[in-house]
Amino acid sequence: MSPLSIDLPSRLLRNLEQWRNAAHWRIAFSGGLDSTVLLHLLADLAKTESLPALSAIHIHHGLQTAADAWPQHCQAVCDALGVPLLVERVKVQPGASLERAARDARYAVFSAQTLANDVLLTGQHRDDQAETLLFRLLRGAGVRGLSGMPQQRPVGQGTLIRPLLDVTRAELERYAQAHSLSWIEDPSNQDRQFSRNYLRHQVMPALRERWPQAQANMARSAAHLRDAQGLLDELAQMDLAQAGTAHDFEWLGLPSLTLAPLSGLSAARQRNALRHWLEPLTRLPDTDHWSGWDDLCHAAGDASPIWRLADGELHRSAGRLWWLSGNWLRTPVIGGEWQAPTSALRLPDNGRVMLTGQAPAGPLRIAYRQGGEVMRLADRGHRDLKRLLNERAVPAFVRGRLPLLFRGAELLAVANLSGLDGDGRDGWKLHWQPTDEDQGLS
To answer: Which compartments does it reside in (predicted)?
Structure first.
């Protein structure tokens, strides 16, 4: 048996040391070489080491006839090792990239199954890392993309770990052969129409022939770039700290930044900070699409520009940047009277409103601003609602969805705006919760 194969268990254990106190280790088990070796290694280590509970999960994509037999194979392997297996069948959405669609479907299941303090283990190795670097380089990726696959990242409520990134495929093959393991050979892995397969079968062998250490060197470059990305992240956090000031509309519950500190940075630092801030909110734009940020940033001071991204919109209003997604992008519709003002009223695509204190005499209704509304203030007489909203610097995207309380044609209150939200003498106020309590933002 190869010394490298003998050393593999101790290397794996060392790579997983900081997660030994996790509640559960679940192996993403495709049945291929990588995950088969990972599963066997962990099941074997569990005999002599105190490890978290082990289980495996197999995703059946249903994309090819041969795959119908794979759940049975995976079940047999897990039964022999005494590891529980969960088989999940998914529907892959058709689209331009079948690879990406399959990955999205797979990781949706992984996210749902990975609970708090759980670890999901995947079998990507050093050769995969080199392919990833080359693939992303050819697509024009930046530092973050070229840093390759991270050893760990959040998934669901837990953490995804890739403990074999310092192991070559050749080492995995030697281990599998030494332990007489059998694994699935996915026929689609030979289809060179897929970009990764083309790189694996056509490009990487030619590179290795000329530069035998090509994959090791590429993996090392990815590690250097991860360090560089770490420094860029630290810089972004410093810049965002300057822009993350408190404001009068915290109750909106929206991600928001003050524009001025960002606009004073160089263009490269602006993009770096924005990438860091947007990453958990949306798929990031490519280089050409960043012109939308320039347009938003340099628009006239009285404008309310919008930058539309893959999963939402970035608005500029009242000197701030606001991230809008989900119901915030839908036009709210309201109809009918507020029949029971003593109870909260749910607003389609706009949260809910409620009255505190003794409700004014009715009949009452909730409506949205149409233009031309006038409100009577005890100390100021009649005032245009538009001017009142301007005085309070209400963001433009909020104005059309602020709930207004009417009695007949009389505007009684504007939700959540101090001085406009109720009657101080009678002690009632109109409160708006922009999103339902069980409805998170993207």
So the answer is: Cytoplasm
Q: For residue 254, report the phi and psi dihedrals to the nearest 5 degrees.
A: -105, 145
Residue 31 annotated as lining a ligand binding site: yes
Q: Express each pLDDT in 107-166 by its tens digit.
A: 999 999 999 999 999 999 999 999 999 999 998 888 999 999 999 999 999 999 999 999
Number of domains in the chain: 3
119 in the same domain as 199: yes
Q: CA 350, CA 436: separation in Å to the nearest integer?
A: 8
Indicate whether 72 belongs to any domain. yes
Calculate the average pLDDT of the chain: 90
Is residue 228 domain-resident?
Answer: no
Q: How far apart are CA 349 and CA 362, in angstroms?
A: 25
Residue 108's Cβ-count burial label (10 Å; 0-12, 13-18, 19+) is middle
264 labeled binding residue: no
Residues 312, 206 within the same domain: no
Q: How confident is the model at residue 1 (pLDDT cuts 50, 70, 90)?
A: very low
User: Angle formed by the axes of helices 3-15 and 169-178, to 10°?
Assistant: 110
* 35 among annotated binding-site residues: yes
CATH at residue 259: 1.20.59.20
353 and 320 in a single domain? The answer is no
Q: Is 33 labelled as part of a ligand binding site? A: yes
* pLDDT tens profile 323-359: 999 999 998 887 668 888 888 999 999 999 999 988 8
| Residue numbers of the domain that contains 23 | 3-222
